[in-house]
Amino acid sequence: MAVLIQGDRIAAVVPRRDFAPPAGTKIVDGTGKTIIPGFVGMHDHTHVPGNTFTGEVAAGLWIAGGVTTVMTAGSAEPERELALAREIAQGERIGPEILPSAPYISGPGGSPAMAMPADAAAARAFVRDWSKRGVQWFKLYRHTEPAIAAAVIDEAHRQGRRVTGHLCSITFAEAAVMGIDGIEHGLTSATDLVPDKEPRSCRSAVPLLDALDLDSPEVSRLIATLVAQDVTLTSTLAILEGRFADRPQGDARSLAMLTPAARDRLAAHRAQLEADAATTRWTSAVWEKILAFERRFVAAGGTLLTGPDFGRHVVPGFGNQRGFELLVEAGFTAPQAIRIATLNGAEALGLSDRIGRIAPGYEADLVLIDGDPARDARDIRKVETVFVNGQAITPAPLIEAARGRFGPQ
After folding, report:
1. What is the pTM of this model?
2. N or C: less crowded end of the chain, CB within 10 Å?
C-alpha cells in the first residue's frame, strides 16, 4: 500500500501499484516494513515514584517509541501537565497529544497527597474547578468513598469529562453501575472476587488469585456486568510483569534511560523479588490468569485499552511497546493488539474520528517499523520514523536526549 500525507493529514491510502504521486512528493520506501497508527497510551503518567513530574523527559521518549497520544490516568502535578500539553499543542516542544488528568481522588486511608473531598458537594466542586482549568479525565483511587465516586462520575459527565479508576474500596461492578468510563489494571484490582468483602473496605484480591477459578460464575458475572455497562479495561501488563521474579525486569534500552536513583531502586526491587521467591503470591499461574482474564473480557465483547504505568524498569515509549508484546503473549493476534493500542484508545478518548486509523482525512500520526510485528512481536521495537501530524521524526536523537534522565532524582 501507499500512504499519501499532505500537510498534517492522510490524503490517500491506495495499492502501491495504483499510486501516482503528485509532483514534488517526497517518497519514503517502506518495502519490507510495516506502518501502523501512532500508539494511544491510556495509562501514561507524567510522574513516577520519587519524582512528581517527568513530563519533559517523557515527551520525547513517547514519540521515539511511537506513542502519539496519551491519557495520563491521574496526575501528581496537574498544572505542569496542562502546561506541557499546551507547549506540545503549540509546537514549542516535540511530544504526543496529551489529555491531562486532575489530581487523584481518594479517601480515608489513601495518600494525603491526593484530593479527598469531604462530601458529594465538595466532589462536584472539585470536578467543576479542574474541568475549567482544562483537564479531560478524573481518576478515582483505591480508598474513594462510594458517595464521592458517584458524585465525581455524575459531575464529570455533566462537564463533558470522563472518569477512570484504580479501584479497591469500590468493586468493579459497583463502579460500573455508577457509570464509570474505565477501570485500570484488570484482574489484580477486582475486589468483586474477595469473599465477604465489607462495603467501603479495601482488601486486595491478589492473595486469592492463585486459587481463583476463571470459569466460576462470579468471574463470568463480573465480565458480563462490565460489558453491559460499556466499561473499558486498561491493560497495564508492562508494570504488572515487574511483580514476577521469573519475568523480564527491563531491557537494555529501558535501563539506559533510568536515572541513577531509578537504577538503585530497581536493584533493590530485584533483590526483594529474589528474597520473596519462595513465598510470593505473584506466581506464574497468577500471571497466566491475568492474561486469560483480559482475553475473556475481549471475547465477551469488552473493550480493552493499554498503557504501561511507568515505574521501576518501565519507561515511556519502550513500555508501550512492551505492552504490545505482552498482549500478543496473552493470545491476541498482532492486528488485535495494534487495535487495542491505537483505535480502542482513540474511541475511549472520543477521538476516533481523527486518530487511530490509517485512512484518508485522519491525522498523519503514524509509525514506520523496520520489520513485521505480525511475524515477530519484538519487531515493534524497530521504530524507524514517527510521523506526528505529518512531521517525520527520527527516534535516535530523542532517545539520546533522555538517556539517564527518566525516573526519581
Report:
1. 0.96
2. C
